[in-house]
Amino acid sequence: MKLPLFQVDAFTAVPFAGNPAAVCVLETDLEPSLMQKIAAEMNLSETAFVRPEGDSHLLRWFTPKVEVDLCGHATLATAHVLLSEGFAAPNTMLAFETRSGRLKACRSAKGWIQLDFPVEAPYEFQPPADVPDSLRSGGIVFAGRNRWDYFFEMESEKLVREMEPDFAALGSATERGVVVTSRADSSEFDFVSRFFAPAVGIDEDPVTGSAHCCLAPYWAERLGKTSMKAFQASARGGVLEVETCEDRVFIRGQAVTVLRAELDLAEG
Hints:
alpha+beta; Diaminopimelate Epimerase, Chain A, domain 1; 18-stranded mixed beta sheet; 18 strands
């Protein structure tokens, strides 16, 4: 069996920035164990598997270690592949059936891809001491979590950018990941963030769409605005536009295909 395979840099307009994801386009189901092996072979933060079903698509995401409930950048990458590689009409509103319910994606007015995701706002929570200790940074002004991740607001963008966690300790202390964030120093952005997830095989995720389901409502409340521009301050970096609307978050970004290939599953 041979399957179309793409590698896409998400939340960037130029190659080799943003967050890379593999997208495998299926016609029939694969066994989850095989999907996991393919994701390990790709060795990217996420590999997405998508196949049409009725008027929507089934979509699953795998890190090199585990299947995850929600992934923003791989959903954006999947929508980009379907809309730009001839799998769907360019102006289609895509619907994805996922472990986090029905998600939608479409082209925005200025040509970016817009994701329609659920709000996953953080609530105040005192984490076990080994979680903040593993960040090896002071200056925490808010500690919380949502159903997946711990969440820390830091005093400054400098602290966010310069953070060097103990990834081994952080992986042992968490189930999925940790979001760190602050107000942005530059007027170009409203807030900055980073995302660490060694527990699922990703020390630092370059740009994390699903984390903005948490970041967007948090900063909307504090900044008094529903539409914001964000920067994820990893080494690769990524730009996102976010907008909150009741229990939904609209996440907009760009993407670029850097590899088109064929996955050969023939035996022997």
